[in-house]
Amino acid sequence: MKKTHGWRRRARSLKEKYILDAAERVIGRSGGRLITMQDIVDELGCSKSLPYVYFRNKRELLQKVCDRRIGILSEMVHGVMADANGPLESLKAALQAVYCFRHTNKAFFQAVQPSALLSLHFLRNPRGTAPDQLAELIQTIRDRLQMAQRQKLIRTDLSPDTLLMFIDATAFTQIGDIAQSPQSRATLLWELTATGLQGRVHGDGNA
185 vs 47, 104, 137, CA distance in Å? Predict the structure, then answer.
């Protein structure tokens, strides 16, 4: 019985992967156009009901596809943070990696979720609601913020969670043609972010 259950789980996992791979191919050719479940069905060459055997709806299917991309981003960011010296350099490397990832995957997220063009809300997911890899990434960045605060490298009048919200907002600011290349835009966004992180309390103690 256990062997049968194991085989069924593997078979289901393979079928889900097959459908998700098809969805990624469709999104890759979409040029940013919103895709439909029918587009995925056509790519699979299957009945309209097949995807719904494995996913409740299109939203769940596309969320699984997004989770794949977030996994790639998480590995990328953890890698650049590990190679950086000090908490500020670590944060800088992470944000520049996030921006470059967003730029190279712009059409993908536009096809999956139009609002992602304004903010992917990578860092503002309430605790306990983000995918495991994203939750781990958020915690890593929060830890770097706390370390930077302990070393008095950044402002201490705001909580790490508030600073996360600020970072998320600036990381996805639409800066148009202010800077021409993705790398120069990423550098500019870090400068804007760093200015806010390193702000000081003035006057009567209010930020």
Answer: 45, 13, 23
Return the bridge partners of 202, or none.
206
Q: Collapse the DSSP code of 70 into the 3-class scheme (helix H, G, I; strand E, B; otherwise coil) and give the result.
A: helix
CA dist 152 → 145, 159, 169, 199, 207 (Å): 10, 13, 23, 11, 16
What is the C-alpha to C-alpha distance for residues 148 and 202, in angstroms, rounded to an integer? 20
pLDDT tens across 102-143, in order? 778 777 777 776 544 334 455 555 444 456 777 788 888 899
Other CB atoms within 10 A of residue 44 CB: 17
SS3 203: coil
Residue 72 CA to residue 47 CA, distance in Å, equals 31
Are 24 and 102 in contact by the 8 Å Cβ rule? The answer is no
pTM of the model: 0.71
In the chain, which segments carry CATH 1.10.357?
67-197
58, containing H or E segment: helix 58-83
38-97 pLDDT, tens per residue?
A: 999 999 999 999 999 999 988 888 888 888 888 888 888 889 998 999 999 998 888 888
CB 149 within 8 A of CB 160: yes
CATH of domain 67-197: 1.10.357
